[in-house]
Design a protein that fits this description.
The complex is a heterodimer.
Chain A (H helix, E strand, L loop, with lengths): L4 H26 L4 H18 L6 H18 L7 H24 L6 H20 L6 H10 L3 H10 L3 H13 L5 E5 L12 H6 L4 E8 L16 E7 L3 H7 L7 E5 L55 H30 L4 H28 L1 E3 L1 H4 L2 H12 L3 E6 L4 E3 H22 L3 H6 L6 E10 L2 E8 L6 H10 L5 H6 L2 H6 L9 H6 L7 H10 L3 E7 L3 E9 L4 E9 L2 E6 L3 E8 L4 E4 L2 E6 L2 E7 H4 L12 E8 L2 E7 L1 E9 L13 E6 L5 E5 L1 H6 L5
Parallel strand pairs in A: 6-8, 13-22, 17-19
Antiparallel strand pairs in A: 1-3, 1-4, 2-3, 5-7, 8-9, 9-11, 10-11, 12-13, 12-20, 14-18, 15-16, 16-17, 18-19, 21-22
Chain B lengths: L2 E5 L4 E5 L1 E2 L5 H10 L4 E3 L3 E3 L2 H9 L4 E3 L4 H6 L15
Parallel strand pairs in B: 2-4, 3-5, 4-6
Antiparallel strand pairs in B: 1-2
Classes of the chains: A alpha+beta, B alpha/beta.
Chain lengths: 706, 90
């Protein structure tokens, strides 16, 4: 079902508030009663309640968040201390709201049994509130009814009065002081489909005589774009009228469920509790711009618009639009790459060197513009790794509690950025690794004390940038991995021979945990370390063009390192030729390249060729041999060589010749080639030909070389 | 027609006159989309339906001239001062 733009906005903002509140609750556990954090959580519940209020069909959300907000208010006022049990309750409320938002997104409505789903939570919230307020325990049913009946719009109205400009407050107080009249404040939030019922809310407000103050605002921040739906009501009217409450109530009689009324008194301008902090601005959620601000001009013509300072910094864009833009940029790069071929053709085939120079100059200009376009388009897809990390405070808290372990989570480098696809796909491997750390790496408090360690274990999630890669590490100070036991298990499972096991150093042995077939349940329980799904982690990361490396010191802890490309969309490659075919080598792997290498620089050691590069002898491989090509596979005189870095080691690859270094759009392989280990993907070159991008690690892997 | 596009050599603006109905929302919407940033003359406007008011607020439309009734100015002004505004000359 297609959601209205207003409901879509509600779902998006609702999710943001659920995440912010959950993150705040976890912070609160660490920093007992930080008022800023408490206010932030209160604000999130308050906004969830307020925005859901304009959709009568989402009443369950309004009711539940209203109850949570009321309890949070007591915490805010210091009447209740938040503890682990209350945190669990609030987190469960947020989980429930999150599930409902997901349901709304899929079906446009709440589940039929929504009220039943939340009945337990609602009772718990109300009961906690009543106990805190010292009320006699009454039946749950009665309190639920009371909560449903209470009008959540009233608190919005109170907040609005408190936040009025000082001059307005002074004028109203002065009017209250001097006049014999009654004054009424009201908040009117028409339902979103009110136009379809023939309502004209502004007309109703206009009938209120002697409006001293009126503010019209948008309930949800909806962009005026192509998706804008003018027939969904999204306005809220806040006002103060010089009339008694009954007169105003009569005017709004047939929309009484959409209005809140307060008889104006001076006490309403005095805050009862600490002020709520300003709404936090986060990158994914647009800053809530206030209403249009208009300054008058007596001149005929345009009246200036003053947005009251900063305009929106962020806008939400459908991901499809960004993907289309990236595809177009990719096509543009392919088209641009054809120009150097045209230059060569103009010079050699058409014998027009002047024309070739001109095309070359234009290529330079187009290249500059396309690079800027590409960078901007890629930047639009960049997200902070915090997005992948944000679930872990909750996950670590819940699992460690369940396992009866004490664990502190430290996260660093959350601002490190990577492409949205990389960030999205990073989540699952990280969950595997953190779960493994919690389940198998971290010891119980008593084991830790016996081992002379602090009772509380530390798991560190760390991200940083390394050239064009993003590195993410999961480290714990648990029991570590015993390489000897890994060797034994690997031999037992037939993954390696006992001879290979004996010749392996400890670091190599630890990498065996990522071998397919190593991770089975019995291994997990037998081994004092990891095992669950490590091959799954490995497969996920390598499918993104990344790598996984394990480090461990038995007794002191383990560190798993994931290295991934920051962006998967556009890559720089070195195009090489071998036996008449072209291949792309990822430029990130290339350390240097050499042409016309003299045979005298090739030395054979123990029957294996090596290439002397600045006094150092590097293993030399022939690309034609490695790719098992037919025909002449010998290294020819005057060959070219590429020095690449594989697992931190420099190796030389002999090729026939080089072409260009080029930015290309790498497309994944399909069909039979999809699983081919040697190729990361394919691309279209400037002359229209298709070439494969090599996975150098795999190409070298099976080399018959020491 | 209560909603018209007025074009002169100097500038274009949308004029809204009389009492508007929700059906006129489509017309105003297409004019605002076709002419981003265009201003609106409300001096001859008697009533603006909520759908159209909401549209002017969402599009942050500059107001070239206000109607006689100060109620509408309050509707479209952020943090309006309390107590009735002085009467405006359109």
């Amino acid at each position: 079902m297609q959601l209205s733009s207003l409901a879509t906005q509600f779902v998006l903002e609702g999710r943001d508030h659920c995440e912010m509140a959950a993150s705040g609750l976890l912070d609160l556990e660490k920093h007992s009663h930080d008022p800023d954090v408490v206010n932030g959580i209160f604000r999130s519940f308050h906004t969830l309640k307020g925005t859901s209020g304009i959709f009568p069909e989402y009443l369950s959300i309004t009711t539940l968040t209203h109850a949570a907000e009321s309890l949070m208010d007591l915490i805010r006022n210091g009447k209740v201390n938040i503890d682990s049990e209350l945190t669990d309750l609030f987190l469960a409320v947020l989980d429930q709201v999150g599930l409902w938002l997901e349901h709304i997104e899929k079906s446009g409505a709440l589940p039929v049994a929504a009220d039943n789903e939340s009945a337990g939570l609602l009772s718990a919230l109300i009961s906690k509130k009543e106990i805190a307020e010292g009320k006699q325990e009454s039946s749950v049913a009665a309190t639920v009814t009371e909560t449903v009946v209470s009008n959540p719009l009233e608190e919005q109205l109170r907040d609005w009065l408190l936040q009025l400009e000082p001059a307005s407050k002074a004028s109203l107080l002065s009017a209250l002081d001097s006049a014999d009249k009654s004054f009424t404040a009201f908040c009117y939030t028409p339902v979103s489909d009110s136009f379809f019922f023939g309502d004209d809310p502004v007309s109703l407000v206009h009938t209120v005589e002697e409006l001293l103050l009126l503010e019209v605002s948008k309930v949800l921040e909806v962009q005026f774009d192509l998706d804008y739906d003018p027939f969904v009501c999204n306005l809220r009217f806040m006002a103060v009228a010089a009339a008694d409450i009954e007169t105003v109530r009569e005017i709004f009689g047939y929309v009484e469920d959409q209005i809140s009324l307060l008889a104006l008194t001076p006490q309403l301008f005095i805050p009862e509790s600490p002020p709520v902090i300003e709404e936090t601005k986060i990158q994914t959620a647009p800053e809530k711009p206030e209403n249009l601000q208009i300054s008058s001009s007596q001149e005929q013509g345009v009246t200036a618009v003053d947005a009251g300072g900063k305009k929106n910094t962020y806008i939400r864009v459908d991901q499809e639009h960004i993907n289309t833009l990236m595809d177009l940029v990719g096509e543009m790069i392919i088209a641009k790459n054809s120009l150097p071929y045209l230059v060569r053709r103009a010079a050699s085939f058409y014998k027009a060197p002047d024309l070739a120079d001109e095309i070359d100059m234009k290529h330079g200009t187009i290249n500059y513009i396309v690079s800027g376009l590409q960078e901007t388009a890629m930047q639009m897809r960049m997200l902070p790794v915090a997005r992948a990390f944000e679930r872990f405070p909750r996950l670590v808290r819940d699992i460690s509690k369940k396992l009866d372990k004490k664990v502190r989570l430290i996260m660093t480098g959350e601002d490190t950025q990577a492409d949205k696809d990389v960030i999205d796909m990073l989540g699952d491997p990280l969950i595997h690794l953190v779960r493994n750390s919690l389940d198998h790496g971290v010891e119980t408090p008593s084991e830790r004390l016996a081992a002379g360690k602090a009772e509380e274990a530390v798991i560190t999630l760390r991200a940083f940038q390394d050239k064009s890669d993003i590195v993410v590490e999961v480290e714990d100070d648990g029991r570590g991995i015993d390489p000897e036991r890994i060797r034994m298990k690997a031999v037992e499972k037939g993954i390696i021979t006992s001879d290979s096991a004996a010749s392996m150093n400890d670091e190599e042995a630890i990498q065996l945990i990522m071998a397919a077939g190593f991770s089975t349940n019995d291994v997990v329980t037998d081994l004092s370390g990891r095992g669950v799904g490590m091959d799954v982690v490995m497969n996920m990361v390598t499918s993104l063009g990344g790598s996984v490396r394990a480090f461990s010191t038995p007794g002191s802890g383990s560190r798993m390192r994931l290295t991934l490309p920051m962006s998967m969309a556009i890559s720089k490659i070195l195009i090489v030729c071998q036996n008449g075919c072209t291949y792309g080598i990822p430029a990130d792997d290339v350390m240097e390249s050499m042409i016309n290498v003299h045979k005298s620089r090739v030395t054979t050691v123990n029957g294996y060729p090596g290439l002397e590069v600045r006094g150092e002898l590097l293993p030399l491989y022939s690309l034609s041999v490695q790719l098992e090509m037919s025909g002449d596979r010998s290294i020819k005189p005057g060959f070219s060589a590429v020095v690449v870095k594989i697992k931190g080691e420099a190796v030389a690859i002999a090729v026939d010749s080089f072409q260009d270094i080029s930015d290309v759009v790498v497309k994944p392989l399909a069909g039979m080639l999809q699983k081919h280990p040697y190729y990361n993907g394919s691309t279209i070159l400037g002359d229209g030909s298709i070439t494969f991008i090599l996975n150098m690690q795999e190409v070298i892997k099976n080399a018959n070389h020491p | 027609m209560p909603i018209t596009l007025e074009t002169s050599e100097k500038q274009s603006f949308i004029s809204i006159r009389g009492v508007t109905e929700p059906d006129e929302g489509d017309e105003l919407l297409s004019l605002l989309r076709e002419h981003p940033g265009i201003s609106v003359d409300l001096s001859g406007m008697e009533h603006l339906h909520t759908a159209l008011l909401q549209m002017l607020i969402s599009a942050e439309t500059p107001i070239a001239a206000w109607p006689q009734d100060t109620f509408w100015r309050k509707c479209m002004t952020k943090n309006p001062p309390a107590l009735p505004l002085p009467e405006e000359t359109p």
